[in-house]
């Protein structure tokens, strides 16, 4: 499994925070900050939009680094992704992501092989 697949199965390479970071795209940072601030009703600023992926060393958004319950659970259990966890199919923590994103579930299942 490539290391840009998040613990939850989402593809970090498709995330606007990741794309803004690797391309140093200030316009994308501003657009993403505005959208995420509206979606989360939180003060998210362009300087918060820097992330190299949740499973690699390097900068992460505050959410990905310390607020994401899925990442925290995977780190606590010592699994690479939720696909390595025997509770994947019944887990309420990752359940919302995989129930709304077939690609995320597929990414996690590919990692199981």
Number of helices: 6
Estimate the strand proportion: under 5%
- Spans where pLDDT lies below 50 across 5 or more residues: none
Number of strands: 0
Mean of all residue-level pLDDT scores: 91
Q: Residue share in helices?
A: 40-55%
Distance between the termini: 9 Å
Computed over alpha carbons, the radius of gyration is 14 Å
Outline the biggest β-sheet: none
Write structural notes for this entry:
The longest helix has 15 residues, at 26-40. The protein has helices spanning 16-22, 26-40, 62-67, 69-77, 92-100, 102-112. The chain is built from six helices and no strands. The protein has 113 residues and is an all-alpha fold. 50% of the residues lie in helices and 0% in strands. The protein starts with 15 loop residues before the first helix and ends with a helix.
For this entry, give a set of tags.
single chain; 113 residues; mainly alpha; 50% helix; 0% strand; globular
Structural topology:
Elements: H1 16-22, H2 26-40, H3 62-67, H4 69-77, H5 92-100, H6 102-112
Short description:
With 113 residues, the protein is mostly helical. It has helices spanning 16-22, 26-40, 62-67, 69-77, 92-100, 102-112. The chain has six helices and no strands.
